[in-house]
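Listing S7. Sequence submitted for prediction.
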Amino acid sequence: MLVFILTDLAVEREALRSIVRETAQESFNCISVDSDQSTSDTLLAISSRRVEGVNTQDFAAGLKSICQALAQDIVRNGEGVHHVMEVHVTSAPSVEFAVSLGKCILRSPLVKTAVAGNDPNVGRFLMAIGNFAKSEGSTLDFTRLKLQLGEEVIFKEGSFDLSYDKEKKLVDYLRSCELYQSEAGQDGITFQPRIRYPSHEQNVRLHLDLAMGSHQGRVWGGDLTHEYISANADYRS
């Protein structure tokens, strides 16, 4: 990832550094395609300082909006990505807690493959949340936790909130967020993306209310598909 932001706005150097650092934390540091990170990942902002009278708060808000959109595009254009997942964790004890929990959900292979298959497997979401709680030594009160997929509440008050009709709606919702469907090549085992560019910008939205505090975090990630495996298993440097 190489990101270069150019502006003519006269933002003081130290202020620009601070804004860029905070922006990175809320955008590029909140994405995960396959849990790995390149050694060359870079975000660089340069100002010509030609335009005076800058409202730094407005500049920071604009930069954050641009970088979050670019971050989502990185996921959307990731190898073999069929779905972009957006996990919004609210009522958390800290921003760091919310972001870490969101990433734990995104990075779960079982969550990724369920979403790739348009399978609203609620148990896998809860499994990932439980894994995070165990690894962090945190006590989550599942009787207060509420989980929502799209517009549907799927877990609340310590129990699954599901029905046949709701699960059908969830399958339809996941399919509506899918960028394309898999299709095997002539050899029957190699899969290549059927599109050159993402067909839409709709995300699979998962909202997790922890009822533990006043902080929140939002993260984005991709699913795990046949195309991703083909691209990386057949890759030679």
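Caption to Listing S7: primary sequence and predicted structure tokens for the chain studied. Residues 147 and 208 are 5 Å apart (CA to CA). The longest helix spans residues 56-76.
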